[in-house]
Amino acid sequence: MFFQMAWRNLWRNPKRTFVLLAAILVGVWSLIFFTAFMMGMLDSMMHNAINTLTGHIQVHAQGFRDDPVIQNAMPDGAPVENALRETLPQGSHWTMRIRMDGVVNTARDTAGVNIVGVDPEREAAVSFFGPKALAEGAMLGKDDPYAIVVGRALAKDFDTGVGKKMVLMAQDTSGEIASRAFRIKGIYTAELEATEKGYVFVSIPAARDMLGLDKQISEFAVLLPDISQSAPVAQKISAALKQDDPGTAYEVDTWKELLPLISAYLGNVDTYMYLWYLVVFIAMGFGIVNTILMAVLERIREFGLLKALGMKPWWIVRLVLAEAVLLLVIGMIGGNLLGFASVAALSHTGIDFSAFARGSQYFGMSRVVYPVITLNNVVAANLLVFVLGALVSVYPAVKAARFTPVEALTHT
């Protein structure tokens, strides 16, 4: 009965009801859509960071991360290969790399880059560098001695292309400057322009020949089937290495240790979202209280008459709260539908931030961000709006119940 009376009361003033419904609808929509946008940004940052030669776990010789020179590479990669085969869960992929800072130059241009010696087949399963990233030319062969693959942005800056020569320079194992001429075999694309300018790829044999290496390897990278397995698997790898190769000190790091900025952001993202929820709700809550309070004050004589006819104060509180609950439920349904429709409309095209690429890439964001909606965030947004909306409606409901029949009927 209360909900029937509340429903009829709502439509006694349709204009006021529609205004309040619009406020709730926009509030719920903004919570869902902007949360999905924020999750999309976070997903983009995570994907780019892990996909750009990080993986879920990395293994280095102790000291290499602090001073990444070739002298600090691990002397032999065989013990790590054995440990990975023993400990990695099914569905995992791993690769080895030789990495060093160096210089790439042509007849006219010079730039600092990170030279990466890779096994192309293994690398494609762990990072972005694979056939799908190839924009022009061909992918590296496993033993190509003089082939190099460069990023599209670097090739554009150097005004060069497939088939042209480049010279790489880096410090070798004896501390001398080693150099070697390569011919561009392919040009790759990446989500971030900084990646395209910052990394050039050669085969592992080519890197070893250039730097005078024997069996040395700079790092191993691992991609697991589930990111949540990172910490326990890293512990197993570390234990296996201590047992199999006690003479060499290794560092086994998870993505959280390799990407401390993103890890810190992830740890605080829930706090940011709840603060955003609170800001939106404060704006929406004032609208709810003001509108319901205005409706109560306009109906003072009506409440006085109901009390004179025997309606208890608690029943009046329930009646006003029922009106608020109906408004909240209808507004939330509309807000949810609008939020889902907005996210669905952008699920294929995303939001293009190419015009702000320089700024967005500073945070590791892709040029295009796709909103990501999760059940937990939708439930949290709706629960927050419903519970707090009902709570702020208590004040006008109690005020309506406190009118006495005499003061209500004498109200003008």
From TrEMBL:
<feature type="domain" description="ABC3 transporter permease C-terminal">
    <location>
        <begin position="278"/>
        <end position="405"/>
    </location>
</feature>
<keyword id="KW-0472">Membrane</keyword>
<dbReference type="InterPro" id="IPR051447">
    <property type="entry name" value="Lipoprotein-release_system"/>
</dbReference>
<feature type="transmembrane region" description="Helical">
    <location>
        <begin position="20"/>
        <end position="42"/>
    </location>
</feature>
<feature type="transmembrane region" description="Helical">
    <location>
        <begin position="368"/>
        <end position="395"/>
    </location>
</feature>
<dbReference type="Pfam" id="PF02687">
    <property type="entry name" value="FtsX"/>
</dbReference>
<keyword id="KW-1003">Cell membrane</keyword>
<protein>
    <submittedName>
        <fullName>ABC transporter permease</fullName>
    </submittedName>
</protein>
<dbReference type="InterPro" id="IPR003838">
    <property type="entry name" value="ABC3_permease_C"/>
</dbReference>
<keyword id="KW-1133">Transmembrane helix</keyword>
<dbReference type="Pfam" id="PF12704">
    <property type="entry name" value="MacB_PCD"/>
</dbReference>
<dbReference type="InterPro" id="IPR025857">
    <property type="entry name" value="MacB_PCD"/>
</dbReference>
<feature type="domain" description="MacB-like periplasmic core">
    <location>
        <begin position="17"/>
        <end position="239"/>
    </location>
</feature>
<comment type="similarity">
    <text>Belongs to the ABC-4 integral membrane protein family. LolC/E subfamily.</text>
</comment>
<keyword id="KW-0812">Transmembrane</keyword>
<feature type="transmembrane region" description="Helical">
    <location>
        <begin position="274"/>
        <end position="297"/>
    </location>
</feature>
<feature type="transmembrane region" description="Helical">
    <location>
        <begin position="318"/>
        <end position="348"/>
    </location>
</feature>
